[in-house]
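[Discussion] Sanity-checking designs against the backbone

I'm trying to build intuition for which residues belong where. Below is a structure token string of 436 positions. I'd appreciate it if someone posts a full sequence so I can compare it with mine line by line.
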């Protein structure tokens, strides 16, 4: 335990604590709705931002001070980062982490060399997992950074790029299985287009579906039983990404017979880029039985790109937890902080403050959501709002047992309809405020 000497294990001290290195709300063993907070929230830390983020932006170089990192792409440096990462996970009491293949191990000059590098680092990851009990929430292959993927990976016009991506996914699935990963994610950063004039959209979507089918088949072949997840995002880096939102993903999965094999990994900032609230995306995925996991972060509505900030807003986390509890929880998924500290927050200790804030915000959101559900006022309001559907004819429509003619006969007899009850939005917003 040498890389963060100024921090010992972060503990729960309660809401009155003023210690910035303690949890005020996240109390891992506290039981809420019959499960511990640890079981509900399944917090996960991402390797890419937390271990590899430099603070660089399109206008300037990196700013992060990371004394353990020598700035090289060597295996030694990668292996040292593993020690740092697990010290961080343990001190934060984070039960899970997530990575891309290229975050943890350097890309070699050949595919074979990249595979060997990944194997070597995976061995170290496995040793640290066993020693600490920290588990892998998910692995994923980075199919967007290398210039070979400039036109996309599974949707590239270049067949060789597709083949390379397939080889990378095959290897990453093997490593994820070896590390006991409980999910496997696909995020298609370059699976989309910049310009429709040069794009055969149908052919690209067919290829993407083939790619996913091959992954499903290979998982079966090697006995990988983790949950496959697709992470929707509408744009950035491409103008349009095929997995643009939950509805688009589910339509694609259904059209290509992939629905039984996939759920969704919903990310807050991606939802807002798609013009949706996070709660919308969670509920949409949830009522289709496809809510798998979340990438917890937040955007900045004044900026409008994927800022990947840590979530600290209790309204946001309450809305997330209302949707997550409604749909029965996330396991085997989790709350994965796909979030990065600002480039001005360049010191290692800022990584702790950031994650503590995110974990506390979700713990508080969980408690607030559970209190709202326990009181039942909100649920009762919604039920009542739709109560006209509980009439005999309403039930028949819902059950597919009524026709247009039945409804015509009903309205001919009834005449005009009177405006039904108020939506009471303001009253309900006030109701939520009572719990915050
Ligand atoms: C990018 C993003 C990715 C995925 C994994 O916006 O969210 O980091 O989570 O590839
Ligand atoms: Co993400």
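Best answer:
Here's mine. Compare freely.
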């Amino acid at each position: 335990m040498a890389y963060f000497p100024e921090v010992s294990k972060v503990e729960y001290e309660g809401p009155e604590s003023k210690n910035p290195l303690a949890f005020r709300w996240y109390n891992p063993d506290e039981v809420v709705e019959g499960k511990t907070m640890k079981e509900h929230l399944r917090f996960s830390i991402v390797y890419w931002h937390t271990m590899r983020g430099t603070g660089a932006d399109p206008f300037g170089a990196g700013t992060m001070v990371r004394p353990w990192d020598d700035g090289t792409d060597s295996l030694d440096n990668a292996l040292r980062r593993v020690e740092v990462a697990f010290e961080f996970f343990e001190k934060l009491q984070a039960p899970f982490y997530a990575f891309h293949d290229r975050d943890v191990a350097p890309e070699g000059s050949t595919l074979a060399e990249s595979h060997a590098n990944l194997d070597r680092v995976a061995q170290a990851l496995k040793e640290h997992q066993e020693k600490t009990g920290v588990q892998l929430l998910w692995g994923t292959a980075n199919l967007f950074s290398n210039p070979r993927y400039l036109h996309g990976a599974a949707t590239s016009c270049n067949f060789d790029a597709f083949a390379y991506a397939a080889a990378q996914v095959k290897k990453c699935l093997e490593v994820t299985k070896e590390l006991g990963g409980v999910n496997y994610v696909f995020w298609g950063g370059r699976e989309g287009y910049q310009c429709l004039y040069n794009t055969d959209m149908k052919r690209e979507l067919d290829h993407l579906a083939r790619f996913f089918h091959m992954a499903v088949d290979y998982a079966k072949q090697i006995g990988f039983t983790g949950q496959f997840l697709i992470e929707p995002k509408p744009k950035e880096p491409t103008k349009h990404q095929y997995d643009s939102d939950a509805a688009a993903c589910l339509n694609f999965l259904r059209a290509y017979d992939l629905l039984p094999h996939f759920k969704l990994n919903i990310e807050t900032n991606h939802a807002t880029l798609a013009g949706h609230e996070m709660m919308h995306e969670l509920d949409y995925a949830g009522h289709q039985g496809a809510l798998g996991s979340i990438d917890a972060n937040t955007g900045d509505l004044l900026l409008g790109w994927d800022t990947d900030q840590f979530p600290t807003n209790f309204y946001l986390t309450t809305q997330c937890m209302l949707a997550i509890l409604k749909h029965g929880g996330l396991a085997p998924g989790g709350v994965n902080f796909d979030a990065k500290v600002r480039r001005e927050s360049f010191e290692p200790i800022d990584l702790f403050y950031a994650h503590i804030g995110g974990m506390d915000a979700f713990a508080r959101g969980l408690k607030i959501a559970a209190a709202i559900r326990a009181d039942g006022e909100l649920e009762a309001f919604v039920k009542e709002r739709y109560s006209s559907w509980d009439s005999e004819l309403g039930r028949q429509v819902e059950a597919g047992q009524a026709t247009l003619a039945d409804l015509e006969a009903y309205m001919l007899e009834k005449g005009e309809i009177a405006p039904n009850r108020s939506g009471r939005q303001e009253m309900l917003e006030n109701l939520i405020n009572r719990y915050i």
